[in-house]
Amino acid sequence: MPRRLFYYNAGFLRQKRLRRILELAGYRLCLGRPRSDDGVVVWGHSPYAARGEAIAARAGVPLLRLEDAFLRSIRPGRLGEAAIGLLLDPQGAHYASAKPSALEEMLAKHPLDDTVLLARARDGIARLRALDLSKYNMHHSDAPLPPAGYVLVVDQTRGDASIQHSGASAARFAEMLATALSEHPQARIVIKTHPETLLGLRKGHFGPADATGRVSLLGEAVSPWALLEGAIAVYTVSSQLGFEAILAGHRPRVFGQPFYAGWGLTAEEFPLPRRNRSLTRVQIFAAAMILSPIWYDPCRDRLCSFEQAVDQLEAELRAFREDRAGHIAIAMRLWKRSRLQAVFGREKPLIFQDNLTKAMARAQATGRSLLVWASKAPRDLPKDLTLLRLEDGFLRSRGLGANLVPPLSLVADDLGIYYDPSQESRFERLMLAPPVAGGLLRAERLLQTLIAARLSKYNLPSRATALPEGFKILVPGQVEDDASILLGATQVKTNLDLLRAARHRFPTAKLIYKPHPDVEAGLRPGAIAPALLAGLADYTASHADPLALIEACDGVITMTSLLGFEALLRGKPVTCLGAPFYAGWGLTTDLGPIPERRLRAADGHPLPRPSLLALVHAALIAYPRYYDPISRRPCPPEVVVERLATGSLTPRGLGLRLLAKLQGRFATHARLWRR
Question: Using 50, 70 and 90 to split pLDDT, how confident is the model at 671?
Fold first, then answer.
């Protein structure tokens, strides 16, 4: 295909991402008249495509048709949201059945038998289903559905090119409904309205007048996957929902000639004789979702794989779903507000409120949830209020929160908080549920990258340390007023007692004591007098690289320190005196009391023990939300790992740097700002 593409539709000029995807794919968009070695690009069979078609024909140059990929965005393009993937076809549009498109050629001729490809496709189907992902994603995953046992009839928007060019017309919709009624004389018929019709953007073929007798019109934005699960049959003209019906296990009745018809997976009212190959749903997914589209990563501004596109859309969709009703943030310090607004205020700006009573009243009046730092979370709230407890994620930043460095990851827990074993947390539920398809492989890759890049929570500058010879146990000090100790530790709650317990547990080992960075900086309590240290620790690793210490030592003993988690990730044995989030799953030696719910089911039977990769998936992928300060969008953890590894992070503002220095100078009065 030529590298220079000429266009004659203003949409190509307005859509920045479309132009960028084409540029990354090796094309250059131009205005003017093409030469013999150029090409013309048009948008599918849109009303404006005829201009480009005519010029390409006169100039005798190739024509490239563009369409959105089958996984597009949260909102429709008519609301201004850019697509995350494109189909570029030099033969035709995938929905135009008059002649084969490149996608049809692939479905007809490609072997589609590669073991790795088909495994990716199986995982992809399962993952889209688990994440409730479709082409558009403004639906409520928990929206009420009709009682199961209905026949699903799928509406489309009037005048859509995919109807006319798949050999159908508006009259075909009435015929489809009549056929569904005739073939299922006792069943309820549910007509699924198109998302753009629900938003008032385009008219459909069915309306209230069609909802008579046993026919009902579904006028809610519901989960397509859940809707398909409750259906006993599916009827469509050429909707993508017919493709998703195949993926959900249906054999849809098709009244047009869409790309997915003719491969042995549908019942066609108007079959295409040239399509006579039998495919599996995994094979058709592999072609349509993995091999054909060009996928784009908007955070790293590069083309990417199908799986990476899903990673990104998952992050954006999670933010949309969790924030669409808005939040009221309670008692947030000024320096945190900008980052909190960026992370949680994309859908509706956060409302900051210092008074709990006023915050609760406003939340009840507006339907917003309450957002509060976990250590300040109120108890016994009214049941009609949702409380989200905030805390930093486990891959936080380059620098300390105590030095006012904003976080790259945050958790917002609606059940409890990970460091409080006295009550169930969302993290625990994630640990007790199997990861989504492909989740363990993703966790393994993330873990390998994390270890290779030598990343931890804060990623502070450190110095090399020469440790004594012999069997060494790392003893990480903690901030003694930290909530994880106050809630997750029992008998041992101070660094001095921790060292004493370590000496008792490992009497002949060389104990390597690492003070906490906040304590070393003089910002938090937990310092041990040198005279007391001398009789317990064999070496005090001040300002040392925590990862180098983990690698050099033979094990770790801790109260609840995150270094225990980071040691587990690097294959080191970990002994826990408290009940941190990573204890009680069979991965650590637990000397403290472990919540029974982590060990046994309600009926008393032992629970299956999660693997280390399941812990990685829960702690680093499923539990936190990540924010990319470069693209200023929600992102998957892989983006944050890359930012931390390369140091490509937005520098802190001068105001925050000055405030951090003032805080360090007046550290003894930290109570004035650490309320």
Answer: very low
| φ and ψ at residue 29, rounded to 5 degrees | -80, 135
CA–CA dist 618, 292 (Å, integer)? 32
Q: For the chain, how many residues are written?
A: 675
For the record, the structure tokens of 353 come out as 């409120």
- The encoded tokens of residue 134 equal 């479709």
Q: What is the pLDDT of residues 84-141, one digit of tens each?
A: 999 999 999 999 999 999 999 999 999 999 999 999 999 999 999 999 999 999 998 8
| CA distances, 301 to each of 289, 296, 328, 397 (Å) | 20, 7, 33, 22
Judged by DSSP in three states, 552 sits in: helix
CA distances from 157 to 48, 71, 160, 192, 588 (A): 18, 18, 6, 11, 57
Rounded CA-CA distance 616/582 in Å is 10
Retrieve residue 38's tokens.
């150029």
Q: What is the pLDDT of residue 398?
A: 67
DSSP letter assigned to residue 111: -
Average pLDDT over residues 60-89: 96
β-pairing verdict for 28-30 and 472-476: unpaired
Give me the pLDDT at residue 399, please: 61
* Cα distance between residue 610 and residue 217, in whole Å: 44
- Residue 405 confidence class, pLDDT cut points 50, 70, 90: confident
In this structure, are strands 302-304 and 294-297 parallel, antiparallel, or unpaired?
antiparallel
CB atoms within 10 A of CB 671: 7
Longest dimension (CA), the chain: 90
Band (pLDDT 50/70/90 cuts) for residue 543 is confident
Q: What are phi and psi of 231, to 5 degrees?
A: -90, 145
**Residues in contact with 549: Cβ distance below 8 Å, sequence separation at least 6, in sequence order:** 465, 467, 474, 512, 514, 541
> What's the CA angle centered on 592, arms 587 and 596, to 5 degrees?
75
Both tokens of residue 243? Answer: 């493709």
Decide: helix, strand or coil at residue 512. strand
Other CB atoms closer than 10 Å to residue 23's CB: what's the count? 11
Task: Indicate the range of 218-227, 237-246, 519-528, 623-632 predicted with least confidence.
Answer: 519-528
At 649, is the secondary structure helix, strand, or coil? coil
User: What six digits make up the tokens of 258?
Assistant: 């869409």
Tokens of 193: 């309205």
Cα 557 → chain centroid: 33
Tokens of 314: 């998952």
Q: Is 472 helix (H, G, I), strand (E, B) or coil?
A: strand
3-class SS at 63? strand
Give the integer Cα–Cα distance in Å for 572 and 301: 37
Contacts of 199 (CB under 8 A, 6+ apart): 76, 78, 79, 138
Amino acid symbol at 365: A
Cα–Cα distance measured from residue 653 to residue 339, given in angstroms and rounded to the nearest whole number: 13
